[in-house]
Amino acid sequence: MSNEKDNLKQALSEAFTASLIRFSTIVFIVIMCWWAFAPFLPILLWALVLAIALFPVRKFFERKFNWTSKRSSTVIALVGVLVLGTPVALVGNSLAVKTLQTYQHYQDGELHVPPPPQKVKEWPLIGEDTYLAWSEAARDLPTFVDKRQLSLRMLRRGLLIKRVVPPAVSSY
Question: Any stretches that span the bilayer, and where are they (predicted)?
């Protein structure tokens, strides 16, 4: 009787250990998949919303022009890319041109920073410091940049890390 109990305990222990390992592996895979796909969830949700919203348009094109679902979907996608892509390309181009022009003006010594308005001093917490820094930049921009080059570099790095790299990755 004792031998049967020991065999039963041994079998249950092995089964529980195997189940625990399988469960842990599945949980690990689910967490890794969530971590990999989490940044794309808003895009997928918008895709779902657009697919549901544009379904009647696709059906209209299929009936009106006697098109296949592939052709209707392609036309809708191309119109969407044109409607969204054109303004994005124009704004991106304008940003790039203005950035290059500003850099060129700085290199040529022609960049002018206007003096700050007096209301800047009234800003809570940062007003006084901002006013002093802005005034210094307005008086002599090249000296201001040279004096604060390390701080500006660190600020740029901080902004890039916060904007480009997800929080889970940037902590490593």
Answer: 43-61, 73-92
